[in-house]
Amino acid sequence: MRRTSASLVAGALVASLAWASGPSSPAVALDPTAGVADLTQDLNQILSDSRLTIARAGVVVKSATTGEELYATDAGKQLIPASNTKLFTSAAAVETLGLDHRFPTTVLGTGRKAGAVLTGDLVLRGTGDPTMLAEDYDALAAKVAASGVKVVTGRLVADDTWFDSQRLGNDWAWDDETAYYAAPISALTASPDRDYDAGSVIVSVAAEGGKVKVSTTPETDYLKIVNKATAGAETDVLIERQHGTRTVVITGTVADPYQEWVAVDDPTAYVSTLFRAALAKHGVKVLGATATGAAPDGAKELARHESMTLGELLVPFMKLSNNIHAEILTKAMGRKVAGQGTWSAGLKVATDFAKANGVQVINMRDGSGLSRRDGFSPGSIVQLLTAVRGKPWFPTWYAALPIAGDADRFVGGTLRSRMRGTPAAGNVHAKTGSLTGVTSLSGYVTSADGEPLVFSIMLNQYLSGSPKDIEDKIAVRLAQFTRAAAADAPAQLRSAAEGQAGDLECSWMKPVQC
């Protein structure tokens, strides 16, 4: 069973605080330049890999204690960061909203309550909580029933006005529209699991009695399922929502159970069906239709649900590289600072935060890194990573980064299959990033001398063969770094194919996860 986010954060704070403070100073070598020269030679050799011949590679390594630049190549070049964008979004969100921030979801009644009858509308109002499950909407419905309301003469109104109505990022790829990792953004949404994949439904298939049975998590009739699959000797099945519709078409053959995460077309409408069904289950009858709109002033609160804190949410957000969390936090920042739950307002907050902390090369188009128009330099990423070490919230944020080689999904995250059995395992705390032809790894590592280092590796425009193992070799070499002399021969890394998911962030590749 998954441990709670709170326990995961608490469990890593001691180590995080120790790293944040760092040693008073690195060990002094007789020739303090020897180790740096050897490091430069080794990193140059690693980056001479033939897969990078026509690619763009930007790498920066600095001492976190002295600020000394130990290695740099194309430090100031703007490159596509992929999910390294989340470093900026998460840091700005914690600074702006606070670690204790929660997302409330409330139910309000308009009009007058007489006995068991509410003469007016019942309003479900959201503020973007990405952790809302079907059971949470059920609990809200139970609270409405417990308040004495049995009949609502008016409508069920879904109030998602905390954010604007733009559901998808401007630059997101059309063929990602039905993918759960690019689900529409709404102030009212629901997750099917405790990875908190907001805005999606799990569609499962299984062969039973020579036929293919289909089920959804949560149970819902919101999606229209067209089942064309047949039972067969092997599982080779496609589960896909048709663009711009609620229709999910299933084709192929099924032998073993299989499931796919599918983004809904409209999270607000989807949540409305979940909540209406929950109300009916608890004996609350809404006579009117379902509508959308803002709750009127004076509406009385009947029920409330509060999310986990942002400090706790950082764990599934950063460990699993959750895009929807990033975009919800972006709009939440805009709402708090400018009163506008929009991408433009939220991105200005994130960009202003970065610039205030010395970042120079930055172009943010979304909060997650799905946009291929996002642009950062490795030098800017290192600047941000260095600056936030002095923030009071740094230990919690640092603990939420994926940790190399730790098999626990909510500790190792997207690095859990990487650098195992090397000096980097349990040492490197870093954010991964992957898109087609793009990979990045940026974060922190402690050298063999006990010196805390900050690094950013950005590889763009390679044509074939994921170069994530190149990132790993660099990170392992940094863990071996000593200022006195050359490191021992690099530890054996996993094979290039092991634990990798190609051109997408591994946690986006459900149900198979690297």
UniProtKB/TrEMBL annotation:
Write down the superkingdom of origin. Answer: Bacteria
Q: What GO molecular function terms would the record report?
A: serine-type carboxypeptidase activity
What SUPFAM superfamilies does the database record attribute to this sequence?
A: beta-lactamase/transpeptidase-like (SSF56601)
BP terms from Gene Ontology = peptidoglycan metabolic process; proteolysis
Q: Which InterPro entries match?
A: Beta-lactam/transpept-like, Peptidase_S13
Signal peptide residues are 1-20
Q: Which UniProt keywords apply?
A: Carboxypeptidase, Hydrolase, Protease, Signal
Q: Which family does it belong to?
A: Belongs to the peptidase S13 family.
What protein name applies here? D-alanyl-D-alanine carboxypeptidase / D-alanyl-D-alanine-endopeptidase (Penicillin-binding protein 4)
**Source species:** Nonomuraea wenchangensis
